[in-house]
Amino acid sequence: MLQKDAKIPEQPTGPREPLLRVEGLVKHFPIRKGLFQRQAGAVKAVDGIDFEVYPGETLGVVGESGCGKSTMGRLITRLIEPTGGKVEFEGRDITHLSMGQMRPMRRDVQMIFQDPYSSLNPRHTIGTIVSAPFRLQKVEPEGGLKNHVQELLSLVGLSPEHYNRYPHEFSGGQRQRIGIARALALRPKLVVADEPVSALDVSIQAQVVNLLDDLQSELGLTYVIIAHDLSVIRHVSDRIAVMYLGKVVELADRKSLYSAPMHPYTKALMSAVPVPDPRRRGLKSERILLKGDVPSPISPPSGCRFHTRCWKATDICKTQEPPLLTLGTGHQVACHHPENAPDQAPGQQVLAEAPDSPQDGPKE
C-alpha cells in the first residue's frame, strides 16, 4: 500500500552523502560515412560533466536546445550507454552494468518522458501500462495489483475508474499524469523528469508542476528536472545546473543563481525571462542578445565553448578551457571572467571578434 504520509527523511548534521554522483560523464555519438561506415567524426552531446544530487532535493537542469540536457538524463538512468565517465547511485558504480544487472536498480531510478503521447502504448489500457513495472520486477503489491494501481491513479489526480480506458481517451495533461503514476509505481528514490510540461498547454503546466511538488513532499522523492523554461525551473528546483554545448557552466542554489548569476551565458538566459510586473510596463529592460548561432557539437570551439558569443572573452578564453570551480559565493562556475565576482584569470585584452558588451548593445 502507498504510504501517503511519508516525509522526506531528515538529513544528518554532518556531511551529506549524495544519492547520485556524476563524474566526467561523456557521450559521443559517432558519425559514420562511406561504404564501410567508417567513423568520420562524433557528435559530442555530453562532454565531461560533474554534479551531485542529494536525497530529497530537486536539481534543475536548463540550457538551449541541443546542449545535451536530455542525453544527460538518459545517461544517468542508463537508458543509453555512456562513452566515458562514471555514474554512482547510492555509492555503487552503475556506469557499465548490463541490462540484467540494472533490472533491480530500475525500482529506484525512474524517468518521466517529455512527450506523453508517444510514451504510452496506445494498444494497452491504463491499468496495463501502470502495472507494467510490477510485472517486470515480479512484485505483488499488498492488497492486489488492481487496487494498488487504482490507488496510484488517485494519487496523481485521476479517477480509479480510468483503469480500463486507453490513452487516446485522455488529454495531454492526463496522459502525463499517467506517465507519472507509472514512474512512481515502485516507489523510486530518484526520478528524472525530461521536460515534463513542455508538451502541455500553459494552463495545464502549473497543475503538473504542483503535482510533482506535492508528490515529492508526500513520498520523499528526489528529482532531476530537465527543462528549458526558466520560470518552471525556478519554481521547482533547490539547485540549478546550467548547460551549454555539452558542459555544465554554472551550478548554484536557486536563490543565488537568480539574484546574481555568475556565468555570462546564465546572465544572458536570465535577461530573456519576462517579469510579470505591471509597474514596469513601458520601461526598457536590459536584454542581452547573443550574437551568432550555437556552435556545432561536432566541432565545438577550443577553450571556453561560449567564447564565440561572449562579450567578455579574452585570449585565455580562446585557448584554455575553464574548469568548474567553486567560488567564495558558493557558485560553481566554469568561466575565466565570472560576473559579479573578481576574475579567476588575470585581466586581458578582450578579443577583437568578441560581441559588444551588453551595456552597449540593444535594449528592449
TrEMBL record:
SMART domains linked to this entry: AAA (SM00382)
Pfam families: ABC_tran, oligo_HPY
Keywords: ATP-binding, Nucleotide-binding, Transport
Keyword Coiled coil: no
Family annotation (InterPro entries): AAA+_ATPase, ABC_transp_ATP-bind, ABC_transporter-like_ATP-bd, ABC_transporter-like_CS, Oligopep_ABC_C, P-loop_NTPase
Molecular function, one GO term: ATP binding
The ABC transporter domain, residue ranges: 20-270
Entry superkingdom: Bacteria
Start and end residues of each stretch annotated as Disordered: 334-364
Family designation: Belongs to the ABC transporter superfamily.
Protein name: Dipeptide ABC transporter ATP-binding protein
